[in-house]
Amino acid sequence: MADQHVQTLPPSPEKATLEGKNKYLGFWLFLGGETVLFASLFGTYLGLRGSTVDGPGPSELFHLPLVFIMTMILLTSSLTSVFAIISMKKGNYKGLLAWMTATVLLGATFLGLEIYEFVEYVEHGLGFTTSAFGSSFYTLVGTHGAHVAFGIAWITTLIIRYRKSGLTLTNAPKFYVAVLYWHFIDVVWVFIFSVVYLMGIGG
Amino acid sequence: MSNTNAQTKSVVWDWLTTVDHKKIGIMYLVAGAFFFALGGFEAILMRIQLMFPEATFLPAQTFNELLTMHGTTMIFLAAMPILFGLMNYIVPLQIGARDVAFPFLNSLGFWLFLFGGILLNLSWFFGGAPDAGWTAYVPLSSEYSGTGIDYYVLGLQISGAGTLIGGINFLVTIINMRAPGMSMMRMPLFTWSTFVASTLILFAFPALTIGLLLLMLERIFGATYFAVASGGNVVIWQHLFWIFGHPEVYILILPAFGIFSEIIATFSKKRLFGYSAMVFATLLIGFLGFMVWAHHMFTVGMGPIANSIFAVATMAIAVPTGIKIFNWLFTMWGGRIQFTTANLFALGFIPSFVMGGVTGIMLATSAANYQFHDTYFVVAHFHYVIIGGVVLGIFGGAFYWWPRMFGYRLNETLGKIFFWMFLFGFHLTFFVQHFLGLMGMPRRVASYLPGQGLDEMNLISTIGAFLMGVAFIIFVVNIFVSMKNKETSGDPWDGRTLEWTIPSPTPEYNFAQTPLVRDVDALWYEKYEGEGSMKAAEPLGDIHMPNGSILPVIISLGLFIASFGFIYHDDGWTWVAIVGLVITFGSMFVRSIKEDHGYHIPVDEIKKGGK
Q: What sequence ranges are listed for the domain Cytochrome oxidase subunit I profile (chain B) (predicted)?
């Protein structure tokens, strides 16, 4: 049953129907709005990152090795999601599910490390209400973390819901759009790594 | 299961679950009209207080709440939803589509707006409405205001999410779902302006989302972005607010421009003069709209260089706006002008809006702005552009599209009385406010002293406000009086665009056959160059329709409930927030895992409906 579907599907199943095309375009537009959302948070953080008042500042807190490992994990999860889409295009549905599962696991590892990181900072005296730097740091990085958490829940739902269905014109756009979202939060993290962590240590 | 037809549902359930863009459009119009009446009532209460010096009609605190709620209601809950209603109903028809791109999200957008609006207004009954102005500047809103601001923050957050969803929906609809032959440069101007306004929504609203989020975290969870003692910065709020707030005024005015372009071309019996210049002027206004937010902050102390740049950028907007004004005049030039009520609104708009534009240039002069700032001059300016532009556009559009949307024409005599009374009342109210401002009367004050030369003009202004109120009542009466005038023609105004090619009342599926578009003003072209009616782009066949769903109401309700949990977080209501969020995310989850492929209207039924 599943194999028959795969063979009759057009080359780009995610954009083969009008619904799929609409979802694809609509999601790109949504990511445009998300860009402004994160830009606003970055602007706020840049305005306030020097305002540590009596609390600890970036250079006292940040451990680049940990953050570097987190970055690599998230970048790898983006790569596995690319492999998932390649599998989809080749009609290899099992490959799609396997690579998406790998993406979720890497995402969860990243999220775990981020929570560990936050707990560490709180122990070192940087609470959410300690200073304007603390508030804006946790808001920016936390909003990204919330996006990661939402992405994990979303992709997990897709994997479980469609574990037996095979690739269809209905679920192909769903997987594709989820991967777009995953790439987006990856790109945002690259900016967080540069603007928050590298500039926090070096500049 | 998948074949639940509208006929088998009760009326209430049908409207709660509908995903039909026409019904959602009408719900936007009804809800928007309600909030418009409410905001107007708030304005009249304020004008009564200001009618005479040192009046004691309202306490100062109530006055502050009224001015905040008047502005917030009119912008977020009246003007935008009413425009969304017109867009929802008309844009799919103008591009030859059977629905919007995301019918479910369309419904979700409406219910989010409505629940957000209700939440905001519930503040009146639970500890007082927000009182920091519609701009909610910090630290006034973060440190010196009561729970009203919490309702403001969460109400706008919820309704803003609805607006963002609506904006994306219109963009995808317009890009992906145009009928064959309708290239971008053949789209009617109302569709074009909807497209540009939706782009502005997409890039402006997230800034408000963050602004409101920060204010919420600061007020409810003790963050310190704005608290100067903890290293915060109050100007960040102003930037975030106006990065959203300035595009917002173009989100309002551009669709009104689109409405006027349709009305003026139809009632001049001429193709719109300079169509492509109109399109590019719209795009240019949209682009420049993002470059000028800091002109609201000239007196904050950004320095002469920043002020000059923003002053020049602001004045540059006068150029594309001027292009539009002249194109409307040239459209009328040599045309056979019909003075219908709809066209009267368009004609009244041109001089009124130009006056608002001129004071806009005066305000953009950053040096002079130090004198105008926070006086009634500013109040006069933005009411000239918003009432003289947006509100006249909404009423013009209502009279123009009423037969399409409701199947009957509004009475023209009552309509003309309404128009003249409203226009006269509007100028009476706000023209004198320019001079009140120049004489130094500050805005947002609950009273003033006698004998300072302010008495007479304030009285005149209040009389004008009453006139506008009475005029609006005449409009409401008109709606009910005119119900008996059944309109059987689908094309009552000898129209030019696709929305006039279908029978009245509009069938559920809009177009039995998708039309083939051969020129700008597709219908007009077929009337004079073709055989008088649209050519079909497809054979008659079954039409696929989406199923209705109650989930949008439940998702919105969950956020509404969760908001109370956040507002009364300190009183141990956190569990309410959790319950609400579980409802919202739970129903999103249900939506995600349940595939719903809709149903088909069989071809026989379509043949019956077409006759």
A: 7-518
- Point out which residues pair with B516 in neighbouring strands: B535
Q: What is the DSSP string of B41-100?
A: HHHHHHHHHTSSTT--SS-HHHHHHHHHHHHHIIIIIIIHHHHHHHHHHHHHHHTT-SS-
- State whether residue B196 sits within 8 Å of chain A by CB: no
| Test the B interface: residue of A24, A128, A130, A135 with most B CBs within 10 Å | A135
Does B207 lie at the interface with A, CB-CB under 8 angstroms? Answer: yes
Nearest CA in chain A to B203: A33
Q: Which of A24, A34, A48 to mutate to test the interface with B (most CBs of B within 10 A)?
A: A48
β-strand partners of A196: none
Tokens of B215: 């204010």
- What does the block give as tokens for B552? 């949008």
- Hey, which residues 459-498 in chain B have their CB within 8 Å of chain A? none
Question: For residue A186, what are the domain limits?
Answer: 2-202
Q: What is B334-400 written as a DSSP string?
A: TS-----HHHHHHHHHHHHHHHHHHHHHHHHSHHHHHHHTTBHHHHHHHHHHIIIIIIHHHHHHHHH
Per-residue pLDDT tens for B51-93? 999 999 999 999 999 999 999 999 999 999 999 999 999 999 9
Distance CA B46, CA B69 (A): 11
Q: Does B19 score more than 90 pLDDT?
A: yes
ipTM: 0.94
Of chain A, the end-to-end C-alpha distance in Å amounts to 58
Distance between CA atoms of residues B34 and B28, nearest Å:
10
**CB contact set of A170 (below 8 Å; sequence gap of 6+):** A19, B595, B597
Residue A165 contacts B where some CB pair is shorter than 8 Å: no
Give the tokens for residue A190: 């690259």
Number of H helices, E strands in chain A: 8, 0
Q: Does residue B339 register a pLDDT over 50?
A: yes
Q: What are phi and psi for residue B515, nearest 5 degrees?
A: -75, 155
In whole angstroms, what is the distance from residue B316 CA to residue B313 CA? Answer: 5
Residue A131 has pLDDT above 90, yes or no: yes
Q: Does B172 touch chain A (CB under 8 A)?
A: yes
CATH number at residue A82: 1.20.120.80
Tally of structural domains, chain A: 1
Residue of A nearest to B165 (CA): A30
Of B202, B214, B597, the CB nearest to A33: B202
Spatial contact of B558 and A126, defined as CB atoms under 8 Å apart: no
Measuring CA to CA, which residue among B192, B313, B291 is closest to residue B247?
Answer: B291
- Work out the minimum CA distance from A176 to partner chain B, whole angstroms: 15
Residue from A202, A187, A102, A88 nearest A152 by CA: A102
Q: What is the end-to-end Cα distance of chain B in Å, rounded? A: 29
Angle between helices B318-332 and B304-316 (to 10 degrees): 10
State whether B168 and A30 contact (CB < 8 Å).
yes
- In this structure, are residues B443 and B376 in contact, taking their beta carbons and an 8 Å threshold? yes
Q: How far is CA B216 from the centre of its chain?
A: 25
Q: Tokens at residue A4, please?
A: 């028959």
Q: Report angle CA B382, B87, B74 to the nearest 5 degrees.
A: 30
* pLDDT of the residue at A2: 45
- The domains of chain B, with CATH numbers, are 21-534 (1.20.210.10), 552-611 (no CATH)
Name the pLDDT band for B4 (thresholds 50, 70, 90). Answer: very low
Position B3 scores a pLDDT of 45
Question: In the block, which residue shows the tokens 């013009």?
Answer: B396
- Tell me, what's the pLDDT at B1? 35
Q: Is the peptide bond before B247 cis (omega within 30 degrees of 0)?
A: no
